[in-house]
Each structure stands twice: as C-alpha cells, then as structure tokens.
Amino acid sequence: MPYHHLLVPTDGSELSGKAVQQAVALSHSLGASVTFFHVQSNFPISLVGVGELVDPNTVTALVQAARDSAEQILAAAAAIAKAAGVVSDQDSVVHSMPYAAIVEAAGRHGADLIVMASHGRRGLEGVLLGSETHKVLTHSSCPVLVVR
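RE: above sequence
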C-alpha cells in the first residue's frame, strides 16, 4: 500500500527525533508529504481558591513559552524535511489528551500513516499510566509505524 501523507507527532525528545528522521526518509522514498504535529498540554490551572496567589503574568509567560517551544520543535523537524527535499507542513494544538489530538490530526490532515516514537514506559509506570503510543495504536483508523 503506498502512503501519500504521513503525520509525525513530535515532542522534541531524542527518540521523537529518530521518528522524524525515519519519517522523512520514508517520505522521500515514497514521494509522500509530511505533517509534523506537536501537542501542547493544558496547564493545570485549576487553582480555585489559590488564584489570588498566581500572578497572571506567570500564566501568560508559561503559555508563550509553550508556544515558542512548539514552534522550535516543529521548525527543527521542517528543516530536516526541507534538507531531504520532502514537502512538509506543521500543526500544533493544545489538548489534554495527546493521543486523541494525534488521532484527530491524522483525520484532519488526511494522513494515511502515523509515524511516531515509542516512549515505552516499562514496569508499574507503564501499567498505571499507559502509553500515548499504545493509545494511538488502539484508537487510530490508519496504520501507525512505531519507531524505537
């Protein structure tokens, strides 16, 4: 099955960088395009009763720092694609459930393959918290290539 459009979630980690590299190489060989995708987490600002202790400028600074980080992560991935001659675009959203945002983005962008890193939690942490990659595998309607 030929793939035409890959969605590549990235968080800027080393393992995620390997997924970006693999996705770009695969896209280049297939003549496919890529959308690099970053999920910004919601800030836990449920500080009811403590709101008067939180400086509004701090919240604004945190939101801006998250945006800046997302832009840097996506720009680095796009530079790798450009160097390989692969057509790419970028998308970022704020979402409390990264796996759901990834699945939604795959549909929104018409991706026919998701290429993502396995951040394999092991042991009790894996059992209790699960894995975003595993959740994407479970909920995605398109194939998922997991890079280790």
